[in-house]
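4.2 Preliminary Data

To establish feasibility before requesting continued support, the project team ran the inverse folding procedure on a target of 250 residues. The structure was first converted into the token representation described in Section 3, and no sequence information of any kind was made available to the design step. The complete token record follows.
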């Protein structure tokens, strides 16, 4: 690896360590991971981070809408490189999706987005594969040997940092993060109820409408849900009660 490449990786590791010292919210840390990964692995146009949830998967952070939508296609099709990396705990590379006959249900829609090559790497915490880091590019054979080395090294360091965060996190803080996630889900469910009433459709159909609105406006699902509820009720949904974790003094 060249001196310039080593310097680039060292800078990325330094950013991860800085976040660790600040004891960040896990969401903040993961958002930073995908942005830095897209910078470190230079052919990548976008990076997404897939995590396990109740036997399925979801994107917890993405550096660009291309990654979020590329991931979402795979969840809908129940197949694709990131899901294979997650399920089999191994790196999965697509050199040229135009000629790759794996994952037929995923392939067509990904090509329509402009995804031509990708690299998905398992994220391991305490010997368990909990997610996959997904790098997307818009031209074939984007990931050279050097790019793969960068991606693997960075993923390993990010997983190690995530392990430290989860081990050291205050249980009250983790509880608050879970509460925040549940509050977000509650807002989305309220918006789905509104759409079901307005459009006289099923919950599944309402979710498709909400997701399409999110994609077309390039906004998060929760933000679109808040807008729908506000338009109907005249006021935004009430925020969850904030919980402040007391600092421990030595």
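Position-by-position output of the design step:
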């Amino acid at each position: 690896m060249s001196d310039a490449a080593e310097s680039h990786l060292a800078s990325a590791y330094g950013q991860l360590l800085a976040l660790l010292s600040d004891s960040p919210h896990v969401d903040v840390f993961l958002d930073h991971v995908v942005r830095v990964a897209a910078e470190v692995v230079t052919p990548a146009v976008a990076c997404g981070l897939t995590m396990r949830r109740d036997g399925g998967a979801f994107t917890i952070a993405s550096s660009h809408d291309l990654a979020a939508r590329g991931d979402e296609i795979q969840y809908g099709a129940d197949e694709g490189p990131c899901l294979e990396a997650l399920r089999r705990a191994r790196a999965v590379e697509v050199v040229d999706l135009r000629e790759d006959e794996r994952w037929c249900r995923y392939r067509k829609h990904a090509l329509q987005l402009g995804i031509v090559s990708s690299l998905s790497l398992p994220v391991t915490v305490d010997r368990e594969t909990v997610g996959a880091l997904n790098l997307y590019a818009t031209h074939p054979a984007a990931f050279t040997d050097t790019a793969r080395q960068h991606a693997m090294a960075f993923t390993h360091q990010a997983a190690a940092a995530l392990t430290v965060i989860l081990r050291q996190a205050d249980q009250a803080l983790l509880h608050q993060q879970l509460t925040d996630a549940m509050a977000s889900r509650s807002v989305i469910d309220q918006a789905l109820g509104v759409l079901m009433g307005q459009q006289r459709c099923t919950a599944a159909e309402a979710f498709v409408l909400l997701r399409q609105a999110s994609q077309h406006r390039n906004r998060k699902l929760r933000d679109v849900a808040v807008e729908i509820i506000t338009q109907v009720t005249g006021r935004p949904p009430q925020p969850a009660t904030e919980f402040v974790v007391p600092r421990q003094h030595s």
